[in-house]
From TrEMBL:
CDD domains named among the record's database cross-references: M48_yhfN_like
Domain of life: Bacteria
Positions of the YgjP-like metallopeptidase domain: 41-245
Organism: Accumulibacter regalis
Protein name: YgjP-like metallopeptidase domain-containing protein
InterPro entries in alphabetical order: UTP_pyrophosphatase-like, YgjP-like_metallopeptidase
Length: 253
């Protein structure tokens, strides 16, 4: 089941009169939106670089607005994903000395000449990852490959840790590269985890892992589902908030 918290809505104190910042759960993603009430007859949705904006008649109840959002949840998710991929100004240029967050700590990227392989040095005072490149243009692909391999190792280890606590066999693991989904679970195909979780602290990864494992018991977000999550990872609420905070600034290249 796909999910991902969206970036937080604009600070409510900076919004024009008549607008409020709100969030809603659409499937497995928490979506921030701006609600603007005005003299209009229908509820309208707009999605652009600013995110989701909802125009509603002054007489419309919040329930009316949320019913409309839930009805169009799939479309909203698709459009938010499309806009996410357009944020070219947020992409990183991979250069010698670039610092990236990995497992919540800083990792220094070094560039060298080589056969498109990578060399990890995690024992030094400053952990480094050296990309040995045939050409500078190969840097994004070599870097992603290195981080994907590290992510797969971590995810497999955490699934092996938590699955027995749920009384299940560790499910098949696949890596996802979705821009706005951190994980999904299917009884048929197993668990998909976004490799970019490698940028976040271990407690955030543990939350996503336990969230998806819990879907093997409850394919929904009912109170029973959250009880399963809490049984696996009692501090999941704090980790979930941390994921929401970090998601908006996840490195992209």
């Amino acid at each position: 089941m796909p999910w991902l918290p969206e970036a937080a809505a604009s600070d409510e104190h900076s919004l024009p009169a008549g607008e409020t910042a709100r969030t809603i759960e659409l499937g497995e993603r928490t979506v921030a939106y701006i609600l603007r009430r005005a003299s209009r007859r229908t509820i309208g949705l707009t999605i652009d670089h600013r995110g989701l904006r909802v125009g509603a008649p002054r007489r419309a109840s919040l329930r009316d607005v949320e019913t409309m959002l839930l009805r169009h949840g799939r479309w909203i998710g698709e459009k938010l994903d499309e806009w996410s991929t357009r944020r070219a100004h947020e992409t990183l240029s991979i250069s010698d000395g670039l610092q990236l967050p990995v497992l919540g700590g800083p990792l220094r990227i070094r560039l060298a000449i080589g056969a498109n392989r990578c060399v990890w040095n995690l024992q030094a005072g400053e952990p480094t990852l050296t990309l040995c490149l045939r050409a500078p243009t190969d840097a994004p692909r070599v870097l992603e490959k290195a981080l994907r391999e590290k992510a797969r190792e971590l995810f497999a280890e955490r699934l092996a840790h938590y699955a027995p606590l749920l009384g299940v066999t560790p499910p098949a693991l696949s890596l996802s590269s979705a821009r706005t989904r951190w994980g999904s679970c299917s009884l048929r195909s197993g668990i998909h985890l976004n490799w970019r979780l490698i940028h976040f602290p271990p407690e955030v990864t543990d939350y996503v892992v336990t969230h998806e494992l819990a879907h093997l018991r409850e394919m929904n977000h009912s109170p029973r589902f959250w009880a399963v999550v809490a049984g696996l990872y009692p501090d999941y609420r704090a980790a979930r908030l941390e994921l929401k905070r970090l998601a908006a600034n996840c490195p992209q290249w």
